[in-house]
Amino acid sequence: MGLTGKVALVTGSTSGIGLGIARELARAGADIMLNGFGEADAIETLRAGLAAEFGVRVGFDGADLMQASEIARLVARCEAEFGALDILVNNAGIQHVALVEDFPDAKWDAVIALNLSAVFHGMKATIPGMKRRGWGRIINIASAHGLVASAQKIAYVAAKHGVLGATKVVAIECANAGITVNAICPGWVLTPLVEAQIAARAKANGTSVEAESNALLAEKQPMLTFTTPEKIGAFTVFLCSDAGSTTTGAALSIDGGWVAQ
Ligand code: NAD
Question: Any idea what the Cα angle at residue 227 is, between residues 223 and 141, rounded to 5°?
Fold first, then answer.
């Protein structure tokens, strides 16, 4: 239980990758603040289930991370309720797929607000407390799309490239403060975010979900396998461990060979 006594905030943890990360951090002994959208009863079942399964404190806050003021409030609540915020995982993200000339301005603003600006606001609000305590771990969930591009994802690719830049800056600023700052760059992970893209392709091409899942993998990854949220969670736990204490400012791929090509 290497993270017993540590407090972790995982944004966007009611689903997908964030939930996998929250589970693995709880398994390692950390207290967890969940965040994200969803149906209240389902979220409470999730919250109580994690607390019971791993014997850690688990809270939930439905802050909308499009609002900078909500991010500051969420961080302050973690520190007030749990006494600290030691591990920040900036994970919440959205996608929109369209050619640049068709890309709605409002979708650009929303993707940049959540996938990039919320990462800045989260780090800004969290680092003063981490500096006071002399220990912190920040893990920004970027993407293979932080390192390379794909067509029709201009806002997402721009935001994720920006996350890698922001990660490097804050890693340098915090290098001797006991705080590491890293980005994880997943390839394809089968979550609601990707299931929506697969369903849209199957509809557009008149094919099956299975055929489009296979095609999606084959287009980008040498390894024809989805990464699971739990594997990204285990990677996060490593970065929070003592073994990870000199890894900082890194863009760490977990992508089935996507960016090796
Ligand atoms: P998901 O749609 O399953 O989960 C997104 C989470 O963010 C949910 O909990 C949702 O409620 C929350 N959320 C959405 N808008 C929010 C807002 N305004 N405020 C607070 N929370 C909000 O998506 P996912 O696939 O698990 O993606 C998680 C992260 O991983 C994203 O940053 C995504 O870009 C990144 N990523 C995903 C993949 C993949 O293949 N799924 C690959 C690389 C990177």
Answer: 120
